[in-house]
Amino acid sequence: MSWIDEILDRALENVKKYLKEKDKPLKRYKKRVKNRNILYKKRMKLGRVKRKVRGGNHGGK
């Protein structure tokens, strides 16, 4: 039974490594977006940025 356990352990390690590598770009993207949002909020408080009005009906008839 021990050789089956070794094979299963190796397979489990490979899956863990694959999932970890796959997750790296997503974490990097989330950090970048979070940082961008924080910087945007700070600029809004200082009045350096005006919100862009996009599309739709803006109070007109």
Description:
The protein has 1 helix and no strands. The longest helix has 45 residues, at 2-46. It has one domain (1-48). The chain is rod-shaped and about 75 Å long. The protein is mostly helical and 61 residues long. It has one helix at 2-46.
- Number of alpha- plus pi-helical segments: 1
Structural class based on helices, strands and sheet pairing: mainly alpha
**Regions with little confidence, pLDDT below 50 for 5+ residues:** none
C-alpha end-to-end distance? 78 Å
Give a count of the beta strands, DSSP E runs of length 2 or more.
Answer: 0
C-alpha geometry: rod-shaped
**What does the largest sheet look like?**
none
User: Roughly how much helix do the residues carry, as a percent range?
Assistant: over 70%
How large a portion of the residues is in β-strands, by DSSP E? under 5%
Write down the domain tally.
1
Mean pLDDT: 83
> H/E series, N to C?
H
Radius of gyration: 24 Å
Protein topology:
Layout: H1 2-46
Please tag this protein with its features:
mainly alpha; 1 helix; 61 residues
Brief overview:
The protein contains one helix and no strands.
